[in-house]
Every structure is written in C-alpha cells, then in structure tokens.
Amino acid sequence: MPLPQYPLPVWHLDPLPPVEAKLRQMKRRRVFIVLLVLAALGLLIYWRYVAEVPRDFSKIDDHFKYGSIGSEYGNGLPFRIWQVLPEMFPEYLPKNGLTGYESLGFVVEKDKDGRPLFETPIGFSRRRIAAQIELISVNCASCHASTYRGVPTEPRQVMLASPAHRVDLLAYFGFLIRCAEDPRFTADNLMARIEAKGGLDPIERIAYRSIAIPRTREQLLLMSGKSKRLFENPSGVGRIDTFTPYKLIQFSYRDPELLRPGNTDLPSIWNQAPRVGMQLHWDGNNTSIHERNISAGIGAGASPTSIDLPRLKRIEDWLLTLPPPKWPSGWKFDQALADRGKPLYLRYCAECHGTPEGGFKGGKVGTVVPLALIKTDPERLMSYTYDFMSNQYSLGTDQDWRFHTFRKTDGYANQPLDGIWARGPYLHNGSVPTLRDLLEPSDLRPKMFYKGNDVVEQTRVGFVSDKDRQGDEIFQKYETSKIGNKNVGHEGPAYGTDLKAPEKDALVEYLKTF
Amino acid sequence: MVDAGSRTAWDTIGQPIHFPRSGLTVKNRIFRSSISGTFDAYDGTGDYARLNWEEKFARGGTGAIISSYVPVSLRGRIYPRYAMIHNDSTIGFWRAVGERVHNYDCKFIMQLSHSGRQQDDRGAENRFRVGMSSTSRMDSFHGLLCEAMTKSQIDEVVEQFGLAARRAQKAGLDGVETHSSHGYLINQFLSSGINDRTDEYGGSLENRARFLREIIASIRAHTEGHFHLQCKISAIDANNAIYPFEKKGNVLADSVQVCKWLEEDGVDAIHVSTGSIFPHPRGPAGDFPIDLVSEVYDPIISSGVRGWSNAKIFRSPIFSRLLRWWWRHRRGPIIEGINAEHAAEIKKNVSIPVILNGGMQRASLIARVIDDGMADAVSIARPLIANNNLPQLFAEGHDLAPRPCSFCNRCLLADLKYPLGCYDLSRFDDDYDRMIAEVMTVFHPSPYETQAD
C-alpha cells in the first residue's frame, strides 16, 4: 500500500543564545587576531628577509651622497664583505698614505677629531635585498663629489656634484677583483672578520656563509675575466674610461679595434638647467639629460631593470638648480685684474663657453666643435663608435626610458664654465693641470704632473699638481705621453694661447668669478 | 574556654541561641549551612526529596537549617531543579518543608537568593537571556555573560526579595537569610572587585551597599512583625584568588562597616563566609577534585564563554594538576575555622549574633570559637552531609565524627550532575555501591512508594 505523503511542517532555526553568539564573536575575533598575527609575521619576515629595501634619506644632499640609484645589483657587494676587505687585504690598496677606501680617493666625512661619521665614504649606497643582506655599490656621488681646500692645513671642504678629482674608480674595482683572486678569500676567513664586528642574526650568518661569500667571489672573478683589458691602460685618479667597461662587461666585446680606450676627466654635474638640450658628454653624443643620467646609472652598475628611476629622478631634479661652489672669500683674488680679464673672456671664450650673465647658454655653448678644429686628444671621441651606439640602443628595449638620442659625433662639445675653478685638471681628458696652463700652447703645458691633491692653486687656478706628496699623502703621476693623455688642442690665436702673460693672468682671474 | 575537666564542648554547643530582635530561639549552636541539591522539578517546583533531605539534618539534631539556595525569581536561579519561591504557588511546598523539620524542634530559615550573573545553568527558560548584575563584565571563571541592571530592574528585584520573604513568613518558616555572599547578585553589588557602576549603586561602599539595604527595607516592608532576617556576608572577597590580575574586592574593614549598617537596619544576625565567586579556594575551603570535575562540568560548558577552555584545563593532566595546586595554594593551610578571625572582627563591631561558616566539624573547636566570643554559632554544610547526625555525635561526647568529612569537596562538584550527598569513597571503605546507596536515601520514602505487605 503506498504511504500518503504529507508536507513537512515549516520550522526555522532558533536565534543564537547569547553565549553562543558571544562564542562566535570571540571565534571570529580569534580568527581575526590569528590572521592579523600571521599577516604581521609574514610582513615581518617579508620585511626582514625578502623585501628589497634601499637606504633612503630625507635630505637631498644625503640622498645624493649615500642614496641608492639601483646600481647594487650590477656592481654591488654584500656590505659586510665589502666592509672587511680593506682590513683583510690592505696590500691591494694604493700605498698613498691613506687607509681603507679613502686611499682610493673616496671622500670620508669625519668629525672634528678625525673619526668617520658614517660607515661608508660618500658615493656608496646600500640596498637590502634578501635575508638581511645589504648590497653596497657606487652611486652618482662616487664620481661627482670631492674636496678642496685653500692650504694643506685647512680642513677639507666637501663639494657635491663636482668632478671626483681624487677618486681612482678603476683602482677600486681592481682592488675588489684582486681580493677575490686571493686564496684567502674564503668563507671561514671572511666570516671570522665579519663576526668579529657582530650584529649578524642566524639567518644572516647562514646566508653570508653559504650564499653571499661564494657568490661574491664568483661574481668578482667573472668581472675579473671580463675586465682585464681595462687595466692595460688605467684611467688614474679623477678619470674614467666611460665606455670600455660597458663594452667589456655589458656587451662582452673582444675585438681590440672596438675596444679603443677613452679615458676622460670626471665632469661636474651641478647647474644642469642651462644644459638642457645641449650636446652632453665630452663628445656631445646625447642631448637628453635624462638619457645621459640613465646611461651613467647603468655605467655605475645598475641594470636596465634594476635602475631606480624615482630615486635617480630625485637627484636629477635637484641637480637642475644646484649652484657650483663660489671661489671662497679670503682666497687670492684681484678684482681689478678680473675686470681686465672679462673683456678678454668675452672676446675669446664667451661664444663657446657662455657667460654668467647669459646663464652659460647661447652661441655655441653645448655644441660640438669638430676634432679637426679643436684638435684635442682623439681617443675619447674614437672610443664611442657607431657599433657601440647600436648596442646601447639594445638596452632596456622593454623600458619606457629606452635610449633614443645617442648620436655619434665628430668632435668635442663646448662646456659651460660654471664653477670652472673647482673642475681641474682641464680638457676632456684632464691633461692640463691649471687654467693658466691651458692658456699656453700645448708645447708649454706640463708634460708630467701629479693628481689627487685637493689644495687649490690660487694663482694659476686648478689643484696643486707640482708636488708628488704632501705630508704622508702621495699623489699619482700623470704623463701626457701615454695614450689618451695628450694635452694638445684648444690652442692658437682663437683660443687665447697667443695672449700676453698679463692678459692670460687677467683672464684666469676673471674665471675665478664663475 | 571549655574546661575539659568540668565541661564538655556540648555544654557550649548545646546551649540555645536567642535572637533578641526577632525573638527566634534555636535549640543549639549548630546551623545547617545552605546546600542545595537538584532534588526538585525542573521549573523549581519543590519535590518530596527536598523534604527528605532537610529532614535528615533535623533528625540528626541540627538546631536550625538554612535552606537550599532559593531563587526569588526565575532569572535569579543558578541551576534548574532547585526549589524556588518566585510566586505564591510555592508557599505550600515550603510550608511542608518547614513542618517536616519543625517535627524535630529544628528551625528553618530560608536563604533568599538571586544569582545575578553567576548562573551555572540558566535553564531553558533563560536560554535567550544573560544574567543581571551590577556590571556588564562577564564572570571571570566560567565566562558567564551579564548586563548591568537598570534602575527599574533593581527596583523589581528588591521587590522580589520582599515578596519572597513574605511568602516564607506565610509558609510558617522561622526566618530568612539574604544570600549576600559567594559572588551572587547582592555580593556583585557589594564587591568593589565586581561593581563598576557609576550611579548611586556603585563607587563608594555606601553606594555599593545600597542594593542590600533596600532589599532589607523591602523585606521589612513586606513581612509582618519583626520576622527573623539574617544576612550572609563574605567577610573578604579575595576576588583575585583564582586570577591574580583581577581586583581584590572588599576587605574585612569594608565588610565590618556593611555589617554595622545592617545592624542599624534591623538585621538579626550576620552569617560570615568568604569569597566573591562560588566555589572559591577559601569557600568552601577544601580540595579541588580534578578527577570528578572533568566528569561533571558538562552542564556548565555551554553556560559561559570560558566553559570549553575550562573543560580542556580540567581534562589536561598538566593544567588540572596545576589548577589543583593553585587552588590549594590560594586557600592556605587552614580549613577548619578559616573564617573565624573575620567573624571575630565583625562580632567585635556589632551587637547582634554572628554565625560562623567554614569547615567547622570539631566540637572542641566550635566550642572554643563560641566561648572565646569569636562567634555565637556555627553553620556547617559538608561535615553534616558526611554525618547528618553530627550534633548528636557531639552530644554523645565525640569531638570528631568517627568518619569525619575530608573536605574533598566531591559533594559540591557532584551536585552539578548527580544527587547531592557524600561522594568520598574512603568514608565508605571504598565500597562504591554502599556510598551510592547512602546518597540515594534522599529519595526515600517516596509518596508513590508501594509499601510491602
């Protein structure tokens, strides 16, 4: 017999009794707290061991001196390794009376008692990448900050965005490579030094011993293999071979013809606003400040993907209006003599180098003078080739900033002369020690002089270059006979080298006001 | 002092006690302290087992019985199956209880009670309600939820106490006692460790005592003549006994002042106990039987938000032992006469009789506290559960019952799930069936029992 079907009575769930409701609320709160704790823990782990954290500075000049531009990935070394290398391998540093990284010409900011104020010299930035490991690398200030003083007994005055006329950047990389090549560069030896300084947490310790030290050695040895040719024609203090490292390391060039060295003096980078649209670099191969800066960042070690554009832009904006240092009051200066020099400047120099009144713009300022006319050392011009330029365009093709405005030129660009007194030695290859020497025909210019002294020669204008030492400090010899070091060109009646000596003196006096 | 040569302890204990204001006289100095037992119908309708239960003590020679915990309203219950006095229909039952114990010249004092937030099992009727209290903060031990009473709710409860006292008087009982200790509602108002009100019922001691004093006034207003009224007071709250981070609560000086006010208000006696929660390491002073608690705690698990975590602690071999150690540590070394010093201090400050509660089961000790003027009488619960005839044993010259109470507190915890009685197996020579048979005697005789031909 089929059973009759009845609709089920309708019923509903009770509301929650207060205790049950409270328990649910507490459970939700517990779950929330657990999630919050997990999130905090995750964030902490991420922050301490995963996140990439550059050291940032609120003050722009500190950012310029110690802030990151993203170069750590390319040239970066784990900071704690970098820190102990000068103690472990002092024999690979220049014997010039200075110690540590200061002996390579980097500026160490010190207190009145001579103790370093910071863990690194100016020009080094740090960025934490993983497992608490901070990488350290050079930034803009490594090549564009230096010191000056009126007499040897004065404290060194730091000038930012100036040419780093005391830095031997190639020797720095050479030092790192030689350390890595030394059989004592082992995890045990380095860890003993690193741990003696303290402050390592267990994860950091494992990361340093197992990953950072072996990898650093491997990376430096790889760079050693690729960069041997660089050391055949060292650039010396205050100079750099702009493109050869690019060619060797980024593009792995091997053809000696394509590897023509191009050592050049490090330029100042202050007061960039007037330079907008000018032909930049010594050979005027680019008219975009932004591209020029990115290229320099990559040259400092950033990769096309690691370059930190926002932080680079912060520097770029600051440099637009950063004024050059003034000729210090109290230094030797004859206003009447300078007044006599001004018309000479206007007649002989202003067309190509601009005037303070004109903002160093106009005329032929920032345009290229063909090598056939300027006749200065050709090596830098020759080192920038069509072939290399083509390769440059292959960089960052997936980036918004990819290069568009590099061009091969046939000469050297006229430079605005703002702050020229602090930019010695002169000419694109730093081959003439003083402005006064530059007003002499090349035959009369010094064939050999010394670089690295930050005492300003207040008559001839430039850094003191006739002394091989000062106190304990020993300076580097510069010889114009070597390839790329010629002090020729920028001479003849049009360049004022035929002026009478008093006229030249007046002209130099006037240049002190720039 | 008792002179062993000429006087026995019973010469002191067996002396009647007279309460001059109410005129009540109790034949000896032994009061059965309030103990409940789930002997009644679920809804609080009294049942025959309660009569059997109370008769046990009356028969055993107890001078006066302070009833079970008797809620004055449904919201004031702590457990189902506890007889209530929340309406007039309950009068008949309580009259029957009174008559049963009066047959033995034993007095019966009803303990008028309201749980406040301390509702171990609020029952089906209160399923969607939280406890009423002086505070909205949950109780610290079980996590029992509550809400701070409004003025109208306070007035309503004050009225309920008065009406309940009137019913007790109508039932022919000998007096009432306000349960103003052990963390129940009145104690929740009195205690500075619990009461966080900012109105006229909170803050100062005077404000915190206002609720109790209004209840006394209400009782006086609703009863005829000078009906015997005593108040059970926790001399000290020790509100932080289990959780040291809780506030300490009332100290002895607070309670002495409250007792002075109570005397002024016409209260006939003070019943001195301890603690602002129940159970408390100091009340009832004894052990914490971790073997039994994990078995009988079930009904409370869902009552409070800390029930589950407590159950886990009770079942944890490590944490339960730690809790037992802590419980005993917070109690201290004394069990018998644990509140004697407090009672003595109160007695010094009032002229009405003081009844001392707390682990008394040695005739000589009871006689001594009375002779030394520390208290006028004692109230006993657990030793009387163990030996219903303890007063008779004292009268026969026993200082201690042959099988005394071990203060194991198993009776206290067993009440959560099983009929109230002595569950200390050692007292029954480890004969479980004999022990259970003794416990079950409360259900006999039954009105429905068929008598053998």
Outline of chain A? elongated
Summed up, the domain count of chain B is 1
Mean pLDDT of chain A: 93
Secondary structure tally: strands of chain A: 16
How many helix segments of chain B?
A: 17
Oligomer: heterodimer
CATH class of chain B: Alpha Beta
- Which spans of chain B have pLDDT < 50 for at least 5 consecutive residues? none
Shape of chain B: globular
Largest sheet of chain A, in brief, is: 4 strands, antiparallel
Number of strands of chain B: 12
Provide the structure class of chain A: alpha+beta
Portion in beta strands of chain A: 5-15%
Low-confidence stretches of chain A: none
CATH architecture of chain B: Alpha-Beta Barrel
Distance between the termini of chain B: 55 Å
Keywords:
heterodimer; A: 514 residues; alpha+beta; four-stranded antiparallel sheet; two-stranded antiparallel ribbon; 18 helices; 16 strands; B: 453 residues; alpha/beta; TIM Barrel; eight-stranded parallel beta barrel; 17 helices; 12 strands
How would you describe this protein?
The complex is a heterodimer of chains A (514) and B (453). In chain A, 37% of the residues lie in helices and 10% in strands. Chain A is an alpha+beta fold and 514 residues long. In chain A, strands 1-3-4-2 form a four-stranded antiparallel β-sheet. Chain A starts with 17 loop residues before the first helix and ends with a helix. The mean pLDDT of chain A is 93. By secondary structure, chain B is α/β, with parallel strands linked by helices. Chain B has a single domain, classed as Aldolase class I (TIM Barrel). Helix content of chain B is 36%, strand content 12%. Chain B has helices at 9-13, 48-59, 91-102, 151-170, 185-190, 205-222, 252-264, 290-296, 298-301, 307-315, 317-331, 340-349, 363-371, 382-386, 390-395, 410-414, 432-439; strands at 17-19, 24-26, 30-32, 64-71, 107-113, 131-133, 146-148, 175-180, 229-234, 269-273, 354-357, 377-380. In chain B, a hairpin with a 4-residue loop joins strand 1 and strand 2. Chain B is globular and about 60 Å long. The model of chain B has no long low-confidence stretch (mean pLDDT 96). The chains are: A alpha+beta (514), B alpha/beta (453). The interface between A and B is small, with 8 and 10 residues.
